[in-house]
Design goal:
By secondary structure, the chain is α/β, with parallel strands linked by helices. The chain has helices at 17-26, 63-84, 94-99, 101-107, 125-136, 194-204, 224-230, 247-252, 266-269, 274-282, 293-301, 313-325, 329-361; strands at 3-6, 31-36, 50-53, 88-92, 112-116, 140-143, 158-160, 183-188, 210-215, 236-239, 256-259, 286-289, 304-307.
Length: 362
């Protein structure tokens, strides 16, 4: 008996693979990981139970040019599955599942887990139909946001999971926002969503009460620093990449978390980003876009502010000032705790299902 874990990227892009690995290890289950180094930038040392498929398929490539790399990945993936004679599989994201869907349905019915962490090609009806079959024939299907239910079929096999680590409650208190001379709003992580953040920056441009931080590696198409220079905006600070262990110190210097992703596509409107969990962990109010599932969660649980960046600047600033003047740190920490309990309940259920899957193998 041996499990194959199939990743659509390299390990550093799919840290949640460890949820499965930890349970398999604790139950002495033999497993191997199959990663796709599709960005051609993985220099990490490989473990003995890892395969890495090197076929370049970088973001921004023409759709037609992606067909051949996808085909090569599919063929190599199927070759490894046959060679290693896996009895069970864990398929991380829908794309590899769709690529080998015939093999999954023919040889692994109720013997694989499908783990969905984002929206991909569900706008195509043929893709949705295959995903529907994959969910129906899975042992169970995990989704990292209930917002995904807007584009996935209804199924009792779907359960919710979360991108959270083991340490989850380091900060117990929050400072008093009312008496701060300057409010710091931080965007922490890969800097992208250029259009949305240009509008966001304009709202606070050169406002002496607010300072904006952008901390992280920026996408090539997101030169916000150049935008600020061209428009003579002085109250925005840019810092480069950071180590994950520095995140706690970074967030201690921030008052609000910028989680503005716009609401143009299902990719951003249905997901729950890591910044939501950062907000709960570090007790920082989140700024989310109206018309997104994240915005719904933030509004329902009282975790921050939901705004429409297309509204007049005056209205948005007034909303921020009102939130700050009425801010109750004790109540906010209580709200974070309530949402954390919901997350833990769902995560425990997710881990329980992995253990049940493991018990079937034994």
């Amino acid at each position: 008996m041996k499990i194959g874990l199939i990743g659509f990227s390299t390990r550093n892009y799919i840290p949640y693979i460890e949820y499965y690995e930890n349970i398999f290890k604790s139950n002495n289950i033999s497993y191997e990981c199959i990663f796709w180094d599709r960005f051609n930038n993985d220099n990490t040392k490989k473990k003995s139970n890892e395969y890495t498929i090197h076929v370049v398929c970088k973001p921004g490539m023409n759709k037609l040019r992606k067909i051949f790399p996808m085909y090569k990945f599919k063929m190599e993936l199927e070759r490894i599955i046959e060679k290693e004679q896996y009895t069970h599989l864990v398929v991380l994201t829908t794309v590899p599942g769709v690529l080998i869907w015939k093999k999954l349905l023919a040889g692994f019915k109720n013997k694989y887990i499908l783990d969905i962490r984002d929206y991909s090609y569900e706008k195509y009806s043929w893709y949705r139909k295959i995903v529907e079959q994959l969910i129906a024939n899975s042992y169970f299907t995990a989704i990292s946001s209930n917002g995904f239910k807007t584009f996935l079929p209804q199924s009792d096999k779907i359960i919710t999971c979360h991108n959270i680590g083991n340490k989850f409650s380091e900060e117990k208190e929050i400072g008093d926002l009312k008496n701060k001379e300057k409010i710091i709003i931080g965007f922490v992580g890969g800097v992208r969503y250029f259009d949305e953040n240009c509008k966001f920056i304009q709202i606070f441009a050169n406002n002496p009460k607010y300072q904006l931080y952008y901390i992280g590696k920026r996408n090539l198409d997101c030169d916000l620093e150049g935008y600020c220079k061209r428009n003579n905006i002085k109250n925005v600070v840019f810092k480069g990449e950071f180590k994950n262990e520095d995140k706690a110190e970074i967030y201690r210097k921030i008052d609000f978390i910028n989680a503005i992703y716009g609401n143009k596509s299902l990719e951003v409107t249905t997901a729950l980003p890591n910044r939501l969990y950062d907000g709960i962990l570090f007790k920082k109010p989140i700024i989310a876009s109206e018309g997104t599932y994240l915005g719904d969660v933030v509004d329902e649980y009282g975790l921050g502010i939901v705004i429409n960046i297309n509204k007049p600047t005056k209205n948005i600033i007034e909303k921020f000032d009102k939130y700050i003047n009425n801010f109750d740190g004790v109540n906010f920490v209580k709200k974070c705790q309530e949402f954390k309990e919901k997350i833990f309940f769902e995560q425990d259920n997710f881990l329980k299902h992995i253990r049940l899957f493991t018990s079937k193998i034994n």
